[in-house]
Amino acid sequence: MALQPSLRPLIVAGRADAPHTLDIFLDYVCPYSAKMALTVDKVLKPLLDAGGKYDGKVKAIIRLQVQPWHSASTLTHESALAVARIAPEKFWPYSLALFKNQEDYFDIPASNLTPLQIREKLAQLAAQVISPEGVAAFKELLKLKGSPNGGVDVTDDLKYTIKFSRQNSIHVSPTVLWDGLVAGEISSSWGEKEWNDFLAAKVQV
């Protein structure tokens, strides 16, 4: 499916020109999304990346699915988009770090923190995967600028991801699309066998 150029780092497995596409909608503060993300890393990436069985046949795109009933969700997604802008090759490692530390951004732990404090905490997490120079740029991208309601430098990318989800009527995280259609059978509980069976049945190239 379509992906604007600034979000190319969200292709986390497979070649960009692969004919089949898995669109995987994940929220950084959703436990089921975290489970799916770890499966993407351990199962799908080896299958889709260079040398894998489906190399050149299937690509996986992480679609950022903000769940606004969790107060910190927007801030975590903004931070991932900032990393994608500064260090594209670190988008997926940073995403995994977010998922592995997601409890820090759950509703109760985040309830006593201001948005600025949460962004500072996210910058500390980003420092685990990007350079000190990158962290400085990360903080700059997430500074509120312009008018009193003008957002930050990655707001337009965030809007794109949200509009993409809305127009495709995506509500639940995780949700997976295969070649543009919801594959309702795919579950966060899937492991190597289920994914291998699914791809064997679906890949036609």
The CATH superfamily bears the name Glutaredoxin
What pattern of helices and strands is seen along the backbone?
EEHEHHHHHHEEH
Biggest sheet: strand arrangement: 1-3-2-4-5
Which CATH first-tier class would you pick? Answer: Alpha Beta
Pfam families: Thioredoxin_4 (PF13462)
Protein name: Thioredoxin-like fold domain-containing protein
Organism: Hypsizygus marmoreus (White beech mushroom)
Domain Thioredoxin-like fold: 11-107
Task: Please provide a brief summary of the model.
The protein is α+β, with helices and mostly antiparallel strands and 205 residues long.
Q: How would you sum up this structure, described in words?
A:
Helix content is 45%, strand content 11%. With 205 residues, it is α+β, with helices and mostly antiparallel strands. It has a single domain, classed as Glutaredoxin (3-Layer(aba) Sandwich), CATH 3.40.30. A five-stranded mixed sheet has the order 1-3-2-4-5, sandwiched between helices. Strand 2 (20-26), helix 1 and strand 3 (58-64) form a beta-alpha-beta unit. The longest helix has 18 residues, at 31-48. The protein is globular, with a radius of gyration of 17 Å. The two termini are 17 Å apart. The relative contact order is 0.19. The model has no long low-confidence stretch (mean pLDDT 96).
